[in-house]
Amino acid sequence: MNIIDSFTRIRLIAGTTFLEAVRQKFFNSVLLISIALVGSSTFFQQFDFGTGELKFITDFGFGALFFFGSILSITATTQLFFNEMENRTALTMLAKPVYKLEFLAGKFLGAHLLMLCFTLVITLALCGILYWREMVLFERLGSELILNGPLIRYGDVFLFGFLQWTKFGVLAAITLFVASFSNTNLYTIVVSFFMLLICQLQYIARDTYSVMEAGWERILVLGLGLIFPNFQLFNIGDQLVFDTEKTPALITLLQIVGYGVIYTLAFVLLAQVNFRRREI
Fold it and tell me: Measuring CA to CA, which of 75, 133, 144, 232 is 20 to 30 A from 258?
């Protein structure tokens, strides 16, 4: 297999998948709802004109990014995969010199590029609102805040968005893995959301493992902790943006990104194993 030709085929599939995803009404609807929700964050808290307001808006925006991003990642990946199955275009594509791994990689990259656009737009909207409220605070409170410098580290907002995008990549890979052996959209979406819930609560298994005595229960909990990624590792918003004393080190951030990349590759390869044995 020629590597250059393989990357070219993956790029073409990813580009086609991305354009198809952007045209979907569901993506545009979720994007508009997310922007509207982030924009309305200032109306969901008491206007005390203190830094608590900015932290509320930030947490609200981060929560909206994760919530709607997770829905979009699972649903878009599922639809993009099964559209190829139902329209029989996958059969036509795989009849050409396109390997199944290339097909899956192209689908994943197309969906992941869609999530990059979503994450970037929501992050920009959140930064715009934070900047607007920060300017209001400077006008109201004057020199008391100006002497302390900017209240928001906007680079950290984008860094958190990048970590969430990495997590969405893991989630899209998990969805692709479920779709590789599933026969329906509904089953894929339901199972993927259950796996999302497990990944969000995986830290509980790790806490349980740390206090358990040696035995088969400890081995079982440890195995579950290794199979399902721990999504709580990506939720470091409280250590960014405001808290200068607890800002994570660069090596920690690189480890989190590497952790996400490893799980993403693992689930895409597992999806390819299932997809190879699937009749299209």
Answer: 75
pLDDT digits (tens, 9 = 90+) for 14-25: 888 888 888 888
Residues 62, 50: Cα–Cα separation, whole Å: 19
Instruction: Name residue 187's amino acid.
Output: Y
CB 182 within 8 A of CB 195: no
Q: What is the pTM of this model?
A: 0.87
Token pair 């894929």: residue: 188
Task: Retrieve residue 247's tokens.
Answer: 């800002």
Tokens 């358990």 belong to 212
Q: Domain span at residue 166?
A: 3-276
Q: Which tokens in the block code for residue 95?
A: 């009849």
Q: CA 60 to CA 90: how far, in whole Å?
A: 40
Which candidate, 57, 63, 107, 53, places its Cα nearest to that of 83? 107
Number of domains in the chain: 1
Angle at 261 between CA 257 and CA 264, to 5 degrees: 140
Give the pLDDT band of residue 59 (cuts 50, 70, 90): confident
Report the distance separating Cα 197 and Cα 192, nearest Å. 9
pLDDT digits (tens, 9 = 90+) for 174-201: 999 999 999 899 999 999 999 999 898 8
- Would you give the distance in Å from CA 140 to the centre of its chain? 37
